[in-house]
Structure formats: structure tokens, C-alpha cells
Amino acid sequence: MNKISAIVKYNSKPAGILSKEDGIYRFTYNETYLREAGNRPISITMPLRKEPYQTETLFPVFINMLSEGANKKNQSRMLKIDENDHFSFLLATAKFDSIGPLTIERINEPA
Question: Which one is predicted more confidently, 82 or 43?
Fold first, then answer.
């Protein structure tokens, strides 16, 4: 499977990299973000640290950025994305118009 990566920004500042490869999600804070005083974690459940976070399901902080119900169904139809493909939904919908300080920008755009 191909690796898909995205920059996670906190108030427009690059905070780290979110990736998916072989069904595993990883989030790693940017070293510069870690060094700069006053930067906040992207989530209370993901405190600032050098070691990557890893899981088999998309991290709750990112799931919570997704629409639900009728909005999700409409987006699925309009974007032609499976309703259960949370990572693709995140990449397609969280680049500009998101609630809160986080935005997600895909790094390796599909050909």
C-alpha cells in the first residue's frame, strides 16, 4: 500500500506529520514545533513528545474534525468518497474550512 502523508497545522503553524501506511496511522510532531516555546499539543490525548504516535484507527482528534449524519452523506456523494474512509474524508475536507485550530494539508497529492 502507498504511504499517504499530510501536514497537520495548529493555527497555521506546521505542528507535525500525519501518515497512513499499510493500515497504520502515525503522527509525529515537527522538531521545530517541539523546540519553540509556547506551542500547544494538537490534543490533550497527544501531548508534545519526540516519539511518534501510532495506531490502527484514525486518532480521535482527527475523527472529531469530520462531519456527521446528513452532512457526511452529502459530502460522501459530492466528493465520491466512501463514508467509512475517514482518512480520505479528513484530507478532502480539513484543509481550509475546519472548526478549531487544526487544518490538514495532504503532502503527496495523487497523480
Answer: 43
Domain ranges of the chain: 4-106
Measured CA to CA, the distance from residue 85 to residue 63 in angstroms comes to: 11
Mean pLDDT of the chain: 91
Q: CA triplet 14, 5, 24: central angle to 5 degrees? A: 120
Which DSSP string corresponds to the chain? ---EEEEEEETTEEEEEEEEETTEEEEEE-HHHHHSTTPPPSBTTB-S-SSPEEESS--HHHHTTS--HHHHHHHHHHHT--TT-HHHHHHHHSSSS-SSSEEEEESS---
Judge whether 90 and 58 are in contact, CB under 8 Å.
yes
63-104 pLDDT per residue, tens:
999 888 898 888 888 889 888 889 999 999 888 878 889 999
